[in-house]
Task: structure prediction
Amino acid sequence: MLVVYEKSDHVATITLNRPEAFNAISPEVYQEFSDTMIRFRDDPDVWVAIITGAGQKAFSAGADIKQMLPRLADKSFALPPGIMRGLNIWKPIIAAINGLALGGGLEIVLACDIRIAAENARFGTPEVSLGLIPGWGGTQRLPRMLPWCKAAEILLMGKPIDAQEAYRIGLINKVVAPAELMSTAQEWAARICENGPIAIRAAKEAMIRGMNMSLDDGLRLEESFFAGLTTTEDFKEGISAFAEKRKPQYKGE
Result:
């Protein structure tokens, strides 16, 4: 399998599985990744996903130059929907970045909500060195996430930055030793799963949709989500658990 899907305790671990090619994204990998993310989206028993790469060297080195780029140049070729473009998933997604995250690999990272990196991780958009630009969201997400000058440095120079620099500029949440990467990601996922899953999804959706709205419109969106959440069984459970001084048992209802 080019993309491995495993789940436990409401958490799916999704692994890009081409370690011999630095987990580069071929057309087949992209299709499997799309199918896997749809599976995650539609699985009611899974509340959070962790995306990582197989092996110790790479999260993903990006689009496979020999297999993917010629297909992308073919105007009749259409990619399936993905988290980078075309597929909205309101469940939280954590990137566990175990090495190189370049080009399309970085663009997968940018489409994740929380990003935890191993000390050996490196981030960059080398597309300009091939006469291209990032085509899976890089030119749009980086300037929305970073100061303009830092986004321009990454996008225009094509030079990778290391994990500590990525942390310093706010591109990632945390840097850990490689041996601690997956356990840290799992701890963060478990902490998210302690909260009401419907509320978590509403918070993410409000954040993303609100980014493209005026503040007034965003506040109205937030108000409508808030009102809807007060009718859920999870809200009733949360209030009861607080009053009874116990841990809530959320069901996503």
In short: The mean pLDDT is 95. Residues 3-193 form a domain with the 2-enoyl-CoA Hydratase; Chain A, domain 1 fold (CATH 3.90.226.10). Residues 27-42 form the longest helix (16 residues).
